[in-house]
Amino acid sequence: MLITVQDINHSFLIGRKGKESNVPVLKNISFSVKQGEIVSIVGRSGSGKSTLLHILAGFLKPDSGEIVVKDTVTSVFNEQQSAQFRLENYGFIFQNFQLMPGLTAFENVELPLKLKGMNRHQRKDKVQQLMKHVGLQSVQDHYPNELSGGQQQRVSIARALITDPPIIFADEPTGSLDSETEQEVLELIQTLNDTRDITFVIITHDDEVAQRADRMYRMHDGILTEEGVPNAV
Ligand code: ADP
Ligand code: MG
């Protein structure tokens, strides 16, 4: 197992001071992800999917439960340890791309390598090679607002990939794309899984997108259950 999640619980304190109530959002969640799998988590808006992803990635501490990634217990990390582990192990893809508007496509993809301290020459080679691989060479000097939605999502996928993370978390990666572009992005994810053995955890409200995964879990009011997918043999 690459990721093992055991009995995660999480509540949010909501409401006015003195009248707060504790609202449980994740209830006894357990699941696992094998090396090289594409696993999807599907569920309606508000069911707790993004909260689970934030906890998996260490942005948020669970109230209880344990997360083990690559034989390391990550749920006990402090903020600095979480940040370091993320930089070494995770890439992220979001619905709204979250590209830096003041940086070109090339510079957006380059940014994580700068954060890791790689030198300029090595960065340039690596970014150029990857941009070619995902079909972005011709637009590498464009700013995000000069790119289509599909191109922006390709840039954000390249940015997620540039540090060679073993795991990519995607939160509604096709949520703001038309259906044709959605297919392209899903095919790119499949290709990256096949050719680079990257493990994907994809969160979506869309059953069709979820069913493209190797395995699928459904989130309903903070409870997670596994369901079969049509393409599983
Ligand atoms: P999903 O991603 O499935 O749409 P979320 O995980 O974003 O669901 O939200 C699950 C529930 O938790 C929702 O009811 C939402 O309002 C609540 N919630 C999410 N983040 C917070 C927060 N920071 N404070 C309070 N409630 C939150
Ligand atoms: Mg969400």
What would you say this structure looks like, in words?
Residues 3-233 form the ABC transporter domain. It comes from Sporosarcina newyorkensis 2681. It is an enzyme of class 3 (hydrolase). By secondary structure, the chain is an alpha/beta fold. The chain has a single domain (3-11, 24-226), classed as P-loop containing nucleotide triphosphate hydrolases (Rossmann fold, 3-Layer(aba) Sandwich), CATH 3.40.50. It is 34% helix and 28% strand. It contains seven helices and ten strands. It has a six-stranded mixed beta sheet with strand order 6-7-8-3-9-10. Strands 2-1-4-5 form a four-stranded antiparallel beta sheet, covered by helices on one side. Strand 1 (3-14) and strand 2 (21-33) form a beta hairpin. The longest helix is centred in the C-terminal third of the chain and has 18 residues, at 179-196. It is globular and about 50 Å long.
